[in-house]
User: Fold this.
Amino acid sequence: MPGKIIIHAGFHKTGTSSVQQVLRANRPLLQPELAMRLKGQMQDLMHATRGYSTWRDDLTLVKAATRFGALLDDLVAMPKRALLLSAEEFSGHMPGRGDLADYSAAPILLSRYCAEITARFPNIEQVIYFSTRAPESWLQSAYWEHVKSSSMTLDYDVFAKTYENAAEFEPILKAVRKQVNVAVHHTALEDCRDLRLGPADPVFDLCDMSPSLREKIVPQPIHNERLDKTVLLALLEANRAYADHYERKAAKQIILAEAQKND
Assistant:
């Protein structure tokens, strides 16, 4: 069994993609001391966690818990190694569309994950980690991500007013701590700017790896940076101009391809 399990559960738009990029790029190096599962390896589970955050029904919650348990059951022997599970979807969908107004599903989901771990490994150390971000900065980043990846047509001011509670992470962290009997850590993205590995450094702080291995980890470029404002405004205009899903998708693909060509 693992020596320790760390769940990096988000939040979205707080440097999680950059953390996962560092993990992915350094996986062979880290393998002797750190096992990991990233969201690409947990698609069925992520589908259930997103579903629960949307529907909040008991059946989908059971599905998420069952699939998390199956993930644990499929683990190969990893004596003394820490296991890091990293996916912002552990907290559900990113808020900001329709009725999904906040991360209030996260405490319920995390409590079920911890219960599944305890049922299998009752004596193992569990840790939950969140990265956070200043509210205004998070709202802007979330808004433009929705513009890029969905049919978002709201003006930013309307979006920010409608979903302002989604950027208040402290109540969610407190709720998680009430739901679970494990350590819950968090670090603001703004506090990671001068760290050698950026937002990945606080994650590695929890992984109990040797200093000699840690210093060999290779930093990676910032991942999933925001597009140029002109491109984002063009995507917003496409969302407003095309009601048909396929026409809208095609128009946005042209905008993104042109932006990539000019980058």
About this structure: The chain has a mean pLDDT of 96. Residues 4-225 form a domain with the Rossmann fold fold (CATH 3.40.50).
